[in-house]
Amino acid sequence: MGHVFVAGSINMDVVATAERHPRIGETVAGDAVLYFPGGKGANQAVATAKLGVPTTLIGRLGTDAFGQELRTFLTAQGVDLALVKDTPGTHSGTAIITIADADNTIVVVPGANALVSADDVAAAVFAKGDVAVSQFEIPLPTIAAFFKRARAAGVTTILNSAPAKQADAELLDLVDILILNETELGFLTGTELSDSDEPARFAEAARAFTRDKIVCVTLGKRGVLALVERRPLLVPGREVKAIDTTGAGDCFVGALASQLAGGKPLRDALAYANAAASICVQRMGAAPSMPTAKDVEDVLVA
Ligand code: RIB
Asked: How far, CA to CA in Å, does 216 sit from each of 13, 69, 136, 211?
């Protein structure tokens, strides 16, 4: 089995639940304030580690109380933190999240995540068969340096281009598998898309990327549309009652990486990742809602 390296953000998610989201300028009464470990990088690393794959996270924490809590939590999930640096003079990444009716809004303040550097990712020691994963919550030049090293070692590179940001062709050329949702696809390709569009419309937009890249467009409960050599493959999702979708995309990415590190074919890996994400949305919080391999197997045989 390969090893998964995740270069990415680590956040404390400060979550307020309410009956509905406030409109601009409005104040609404909330129900609860909750603190969950999160950050797209940490969530994806927890997903792969809980699914039984050796996982190293590369990132930064502040030397604050959140940083200590996050380190303790991630260690307990089995994530190797040897390449996570404590960084004095800044705070740990913090996300302010509002959840109403299972939907969320998120404001992320990067703190130490903004300082993850090319030197930090240079410490990863890759072997063939490993998988390198990143997202857009650390500096883009750092991601490029990470993927350049991974590619040189024959490692599969997975980019989850979230949150939506413009990326240059040089970075995208280093990506083997691009995973994004409808909004991020619209943003990166300059296409007007809505989440109710037909899959064929997403396939058309995703053809803007080079044909050597696998593009996976996550469609929530509708599943995932993958483009392999520009040919569409739709893997349906599972209808479940969602209570909190925060981290579901990260769960999908981590689960897919775990299966590819285990040598599974893409179609099976996508079905597995859909099942994992369907479990995640039925639990509160980001990193704590990642399923174990047993949880996913139970869903797949049901
Ligand atoms: O993808 C969900 C994550 O986005 C949250 O955990 C939050 O920290 C933000 O990074």
From this structure: 26, 33, 16, 13
CB of 250 closer than 6 angstroms to any ligand 1 atom: yes
Measured CA to CA, the distance from residue 227 to residue 216 in angstroms comes to 6
What residues make up the domain containing 227?
4-10+38-92+111-301
Is 38 close to ligand 1, i.e. is its CB under 6 Å away? yes
For residue 220, is it within any domain? yes
Query: For 27-48, what is each residue's pLDDT tens digit?
Result: 999 999 999 999 999 999 999 9
| Ligand 1 atom showing the smallest separation from residue 42 Cα | 6
Total of domains in the chain = 1
Query: Does 244 participate in catalysis according to the annotation?
Result: no
Q: Quick one: which atom of ligand 1 is closest to the CA of 249?
A: 1
Asked if the structure places residue 237 within a domain, the reply is yes
Has residue 15 been placed in a domain?
no
C-alpha 118/C-alpha 7 separation (Å) is 10
pTM reported for the whole predicted model: 0.97
